[in-house]
Amino acid sequence: MPRLELKIPPLPLAVVVAVLMWLLAKYLPVMEINRVLAGIVAGSLGIGGIVCIVAGVMQFRTSRTTVNPMRPEQASTLVAGGIYARTRNPMYVGMLLLLLGWAAWLGSAYALVLPIVFVLYMNRFQIVPEETALQARFGDAFLAYCERVRRWL
Q: What gap in Å lies between CA 134 and CA 94, rounded to an integer?
């Protein structure tokens, strides 16, 4: 089996997960939900997700380092300020929040399984390889950062 580390870009992966969530909601029984409440929950999670993603990208751009998740070894700066003082992966947290908002909008308990799969996949095949590359690049400074800031939230 080919190694999956850093092979599937996170954003297209999140889109595939969202489509699969939609298919689950379409073909399996859904919960009866209050559409207004679902809209509020979905909107709140969606806005939170977008804020996390935009803040993460802006912080990388301000620090003049790569945003490319497929090439973490090209990072020129260890970004530890702004939103990165709260989570090591704000863009992935944002994608997760968007997926959870989508699940709320779909009203499908089955669809909630796929954001969990997204997190498990991201931890194993994206984040761990990124962290390995960042530790090799920034050494003890990265390890100290990892001790201060959680991987997700």
A: 21
Question: How far apart, in whole angstroms, are the C-alpha atoms of residue 57 and residue 111?
Answer: 27
- Rounded CA separation 66/85 (Å): 18
Q: Comparing C-alpha atoms, which of 120, 118, 114, 117 is closest to residue 28? A: 114
pLDDT in tens, 16-46: 999 999 999 999 877 778 889 999 999 999 9
- 149 vs 3: CA distance, rounded Å: 28
Distance CA 110, CA 22 (A): 10
Which of 94, 83, 118, 115 minimizes the C-alpha distance to 45? 94
Distance, in Å, from the CA atom of 69 to the CA atom of 123, rounded to the nearest integer, reads: 13
Q: Please give the C-alpha separations between residue 93 and each of 34, 35, 36, 37, 123, in angstroms, as whole numbers.
A: 26, 25, 25, 22, 12
